[in-house]
Structure formats: structure tokens, C-alpha cells
UniProtKB/TrEMBL annotation:
Organism: Pontixanthobacter aestiaquae
InterPro entries named among the record's database cross-references: Glyas_Bleomycin-R_OHBP_Dase, Glyas_Fos-R_dOase_dom, VOC_core
Protein's name in the database: VOC family protein
Domain VOC: 1-122
Lineage, highest ranks first: Bacteria, Pseudomonadati, Pseudomonadota, Alphaproteobacteria, Sphingomonadales
Gene3D superfamilies assigned to the protein according to its UniProt record, in alphabetical order: 2,3-Dihydroxybiphenyl 1,2-Dioxygenase, domain 1
């Protein structure tokens, strides 16, 4: 079972501002915090997300083909999280909207370090 996903950052304070804003919109806050690592979510709840300075002390880099998907309960919440991401230093990777014919509705963005995420809901 997935507990949380960790994304590398070269600027933990910047990452903290970005993910604090998204977590607040999703109704959670920080669940763990150390000098080089912060995790957001709710202990015992859905999987969380974390930002960390790499343990090997090398620069954090983006994983090609890696993406974290954040599930919410409505298309309005997809739009809100997407807008918050862009307002807090994120970059657009695909505006919110339906994808395919199976009720998948998502918006795509990158965090300030270039990690790719999406926020989605199922409409059917």
C-alpha cells in the first residue's frame, strides 16, 4: 500500500510554500517535518506527498516519465488546486478538462522544481 510519494527539491522553503498552498486546498497540512524533508497529508489517511533535499546531497533532478496524481472529489476542486499550483510558482502542463471518454477529468502542472503532477477526479 502506498504511504506517500517523495519528490526532490533544491529549495525546500520554496517547495514548502508551493505544497502548503495545495495541501490547504485539499484539506490537509504537514504530517512530518525535518530540516531536509516535509510531508503533507494525514496520518492514516490517503497517501501523502513529500518534498526532500536528496539524501546523497547531489542536486535534485526531475524523473522523466514520473508523475504524481492528486485525487480530489470534484471538477471545481481540480480547477482550484490547478489554479493554486500556478499561482504558487507552478507551470502549466495541461489545463483542467476531460481526458478520454471514461469520466477522467484532470489538470496537469509542474512544481517549482519541475516535478510533474496532476490533479484529477472521476466524473462518472
Amino acid at each position: 500500500m502506498l504511504g506517500y510519494v517523495t519528490l526532490g527539491t533544491n529549495d525546500l522553503a520554496r517547495a514548502a510554500n508551493f505544497y502548503d498552498a495545495i495541501a490547504k486546498e485539499m484539506g490537509v497540512g504537514r504530517m512530518m517535518e525535518f530540516d531536509t524533508f516535509i510531508a503533507w497529508g494525514k496520518m492514516g489517511g490517503a497517501p501523502g506527498i513529500a518534498a526532500t533535499k536528496p539524501f546523497d546531497e547531489q542536486p535534485a533532478t526531475v524523473g522523466n516519465g514520473t508523475m504524481v496524481a492528486l485525487q480530489v472529489d470534484s471538477t471545481d476542486k481540480v480547477q482550484a488546486v490547478y489554479d493554486i499550483a500556478l499561482a504558487n510558482g507552478g507551470a502549466d502542463e495541461g489545463a483542467p478538462g476531460p481526458r478520454g471518454d471514461d469520466g477522467f477529468y484532470a489538470g496537469y502542472f509542474r512544481d517549482p522544481d519541475g516535478n510533474k503532477l496532476n490533479v484529477f477526479t472521476m466524473t462518472s
